[in-house]
Amino acid sequence: MNLYLIDGNSYFYRAFHAIRGLTNSKGFPTNAIYGFTNMIMKIIREKKPDAVAIAFDSPHPTERHRIYEEYKAQRPETPNDLILQIPYIKEIINAFNISSFEMPGYEADDIIGTIAKKAASQGVTVFILSGDKDMMQIVDGGIKIYDPMKDIIIDEKYVIERFGVSPERLPEIMAITGDTVDNIPGVKGIGEKTAKELLSKAGSLDELMDHPEKTTSERLKKMIADNIENIKLSRILATIDTNIPIDISLQDMIIKEPNWPALLPLFTEFEFKSLIKLAPSKGREPRGQYRAITDREDLKRLLGKT
Q1: Of 88, 99, 208, 279, whose CB count within 10 A is highest?
Q2: Is the distance from CB of 210 to CB of 173 less than 8 angstroms?
Q3: CATH number at residue 203
């Protein structure tokens, strides 16, 4: 069995920015709804997963915000045109009979990480749809990353070759480099290549922090020694929580037939003609005039006309 896990926030932002200016005849923005729906349908059509689940960030502050107020603070406000579409995206997900998760105080990454680890422990092969490097930390024998933009599968070998550490140690790299996307501070001026070299020589992040004097470069030695607290904080911020209190049922995540009677009114309202055409003909009202055959004489008259 394979399970595909999708970061809903990442996907609807990507859809919103990929398609510009799409509205229905009433002027309601539909670009994110249309793009998101097509992305999900493409994954199901091309990858043929046995099960799918989508996770969303909570609008409430998380533990990361509590310990570091500047976490993700540099990100721009969500555009109003996107905010208007999010409830309908979730309604469409529900109509597709796809499981979705959102927990107050937790990010989609934590939800995905927890589900992935639980599913993999039961022998499920998990694919996480993401282009974000922070998700690579939960990669293992049963969990892989699928980057839909590059159309590549990221496994343990890929992570080790790129970062020089096993996947679970990726937060050690990010603790040093920081992450501008999430506003994780790290050590300003140290990039991935140098961080990789530092950890290779020290053996671990803890050893590097305990003995920065072992660093051969005086400049790097000072940079590490002066930023110990930032490094500790950044490791916490960069670590995905894979043990959040969430109940999951793999059975509920198995792909099911979409609820077309619920989808069609939405597709009609948003004027998605190409998506309406995908609905099965079964259950639609046939066109033409019909009369019930109720007795033998009716049948004879009908046969007499043929």
Answers
A1: 208
A2: no
A3: 1.10.150.20
48 by DSSP, 3-state: which?
A: coil
β-strands 143-147, 152-154 pairing: antiparallel
Do 66 and 151 lie in a common domain?
yes
Type of residue at 294: T
- Has residue 102 been placed in a domain? yes
32 close to 12: Cβ distance less than 8 angstroms:
yes
In the 3-class helix/strand/coil scheme, how is 225-264 assigned residue by residue?
A: HHCHHHHHHHHHHHCCCCCCCCCCCHHHHECCCCCHHHHH
Which residue segment(s) compose the domain that 14 sits in?
2-155+241-260
Cβ distance 64 to 71 under 8 Å? yes
Residues 115 and 36 in one domain: yes
Pair 177, 190: CB distance under 8 Å = yes
Q: In the predicted model, is pLDDT for residue 196 greater than 60? A: yes
Q: What is the pLDDT of residues 200-230, one digit of tens each?
A: 999 999 999 999 988 889 999 999 999 999 9
Q: Which amino acid is present at 178?
A: G
Sequence letter at residue 113: G
- Tokens read off for 136: 């690579």
Q: Is residue 291 part of a domain?
A: no
